[in-house]
Amino acid sequence: MLNPDAKLAANIFDKPDMAPTRDGFGKGVVEAGKADERVVVLSADLEESTRAEWFHKEFPARFVEMGVAEQNMATVAAGMANYGKIPFFTSYAAFSPGRNWEQIRTTIALNNVHAIICGMHAGVSVGPDGATHQMLEDMALMRAMPNMIVISPCDAEEGRKATIAAAKTGKPVYMRFGRDKTPVMTTAETPFEIGKANILWGKSHISVRGALTQSDGVAPPIEQGEPLHTSDSNLRGDASKVAIFATGPLVHNALLAARELEKENITVTVTNVHTIKPLDEETIVALAREAGAVVTVEEHQVNGGLGSAIAELLAKKVPTPIEFIGVQNQFGQSGDPKELIEHYGMGVSHIAEAAKRAIARKN
Amino acid sequence: MEPLTDAEVKALVDHANAIRATIIEMLVAAGSGHTAGPLGMADIFTALYFHVLTHDPKNPDWPERDRLMLSNGHITPVRYATMAHAGYFPIEECLTLRKFGSRLQGHPEREKLPGVETTSGPLGSGLSQASGYAYAARMDGKTFRTYVAMSDGEHQEGNLWEAAMFAGKNRLSNLTAIIDRNNIQIDGMTENIMPLEPLRDKYEAFNWHVLEVDGHNIPQFIAACDEAKAIYEKPTVIIAHTIPGKGIHEIEFDYKWHGKPPSKEEAAKFLNELRTLGGKIQSEHQ
Known about the structure:
The complex is a heterodimer of chains A (363) and B (286). With 363 residues, chain A is an alpha/beta fold. Chain A is built from twelve helices and 14 strands. Chain B has 286 residues and is of the alpha/beta class.
């Protein structure tokens, strides 16, 4: 069942409101701009489709048109952030951080300045534009960098909150957004904190830290060997338990899969891991330990994204069978977003089957 | 601006000579690094830190300071040596260049050493960082200038021309770019590797104000920096024609000295040449 603490929208399984996550960016960056006059927005000739134009209309003097020049956009943003502005720079994820990775590495991440990379049109759900524009490697590219925070909002509302939060980190941030309209699951009351995963489905017996935040609003990583507080009676005892960790709009498919699995008496948790880095290690380790089987779900290559991050963590803390839902080392192609999600194995049935495979691998 | 007096010019030349000696000492202590570029830019960095820039070595984060970004981070020994001579940190610390734990990283890092302004090394991105900085400063009505020093070879990077377009479009008159036009890069002469000429015409076509100077004529370079301040509608680029390895006769113009340090024996010879001004004041040093 849905976790009431997540305060999700009432209609998420019937007729959910639909909106692209990029709309959440558009709204959030206007709010961030109202709250802090240091916020500026840069666009590489894509202000309509990135929703940067909403900021442009509100704050014309704080909008900077960069032309089709993503390398310059990243480095100009680095200079502005070095000065003391809070630049959000926007393009399609295939171009930024796709084309300007080294500029981001040196002038933003190593320089450790507060610039926010906003990569739109991530995933195969871009649809008809085809493989060139369907960015599937962005989280891997950004996650590998020291200092970088990586956020993948699950819906437009979370995209709005993430954008507002990103303006307050004081650190380099990468955020990915999608093109297609996807279900709006969360509400204004749903908790959002960078680095804190949200359990959206299922009851957990874990008790996680009450105070997660450091002064910069980012949850600290747990130390190696730090004891995790789980209820002993629930340790790997139940043969029909699985923990699903999902990110981005596919969280909705994960919830639909959980509903199906529960009908088959399989106990499921679905956790929205909106922050890929820093990972909410405590929650993920506790849930994986409790379930003993894990499925990761992301609209991204299975190499290097959420699944890899969780596999790295669990291999170190609590080795667990994991099934990886995502694009399996392929490029996308033109098509309708829904048929592409199915074709590349990220549909509801794929997630449910993966959960059963993971359970079957328990010792 | 009043022209420099002879005494002022002599003082600057003496600083530059001492900075060249420090560069040789730090490179030989490091055992790796670039020689030709730092020696070639010693006069310009001296002019910047001892005359042109508004700055306070004891207060490197002073908000109203002029900013100097170094785009081609590999010539950072000249910046470190000049900063030390200007009073940012003890000259002895220069000998930690490229060593474990040093603030003087092989390529400069903003968070390691106060005053270096930004992190650089990968080429072609300094102009855009400086342009972003100058743009942001102008938004807030700040009156300080942003300077950026670049190499000629890095003009082969596409990112740099994106920045040139951006600065030209936005008439960033609070930005002065300086090009070390020494005509060498790692693999040979720039005009053989990938020609840059006509460099002046390229910048003019990108709506920049272009000045050309002898990069070893300190008064001429300072006059160009002053002229840049008087240009209100465009960013200014100063193409400074320099001699790679300037000051050490036997390595001048030789591209093979782009990326290697002197040996101990060579360093002793080079230091002697610098300290005797090429033998002119031999008697004092023998």
